[in-house]
Prior knowledge:
Elements: H1 8-11, H2 13-17, E1 21-24, E2 27-32, E3 35-38, H3 42-51, E4 59-63, H4 69-80, H5 106-111, H6 116-120, E5 126-129, H7 138-141, E6 146-151, H8 154-166, H9 174-182, H10 191-204, E7 209-213, H11 214-219, H12 221-231, H13 238-242, H14 245-252, H15 255-259, E8 270-271, E9 277-278, H16 297-311
Bound molecules: adenosine-3'-5'-diphosphate.
The site of adenosine-3'-5'-diphosphate (A3P) has 22 residues, from helix 4, helix 8 and helix 15.
Amino acid sequence: GSVPEHTPKEEFSDLVEALPRRQQSILELRLYQGFWLPEHWVPGTIVFQRRFSPRPDDVVLASYPKCGTTWLKALAFAAAARGAHPPASTAHPLRRLNPHDCIPFIDEIFAGGEHAKLDLLPSPRLMNTHLPYTLLPGPVTAGACRVVYVCRDPKDMVVSLWHFLRRAKPDLSFAETFESVCDGTVAAGPVWDHVLSYWRASVARPDRVLFLKYEDLLRDAAAGVRRLAEFMGRPFSPAEEAAGDVAAVVELCSFEEMKGLEVNKPGAGTAGRYRPMPRDAFFRKGVAGDWANQMTPEMAARLDGIVREKLQGTGLAF
Ligand code: A3P
């Protein structure tokens, strides 16, 4: 007879039960290898760590939640797939689909025991994760594939996170969200350790880990697209440059363009599997500095102070 297949959740339930636990807004968190992960990610993370076999042309898109994941997914997809899908084309998949439906979210795929789906993807694969660098599978951190990270001013991240979580829990207070970020007990937190894990990796292996900032992308998205394409081993050719392909990618992935799509309108449906979120929730304001509308100067100074202290001497600053 055949051995019954266990889901990752069943297989690792004892291990998960033994981990420190905290409740944060809509999520149960577990402390796993130094980070507070949503409980439902932990078994999948273990399977990811043990079973993922990277291909040399894989690109893992990594981010702390609410720091530009959706945008990075769109930009990377548009740049990587520009041969098959010219960015200016009106039939481009990104004009029909939310970026989260174009690029698989590793953490959910493994949590759902669906890792075989990744094996079926054609190369070069693009995938994304919210895990910190130190929790990525050994072969990935040994340099077997490429990793792109996007970070963002933590103050804007907190405000974005609060607005996002409020979609699922309307009475969630900003103060509670802020406190959880400040003490690190937030999904994939502490945020400074998350950012530093990728920062250090990008300093050590700039050929393997590309470190981007949301604010830099806002200032000069075209420069970001060029860096992305070059890093992925497919720089824009002079002919593509002359044809305006970089600008077309920027335009295709712009906040206004994506927010305005039928698929991302309020009521048009959800993205994500375990905890589906309305697709329009991924497009709120798309600017830098919105924290000032939500945070007191004291709160801003406190979070800045924590982050500054944690980042001191690392060469990274916000
Ligand atoms: P705000 O809530 O500050 O507007 P993530 O994709 O990691 O969940 O991050 C969401 C944040 O990125 C939100 O920030 C969202 O508005 C912004 N965003 C989404 N798509 C974007 C795009 N195409 N360009 C710029 N910002 C974008």
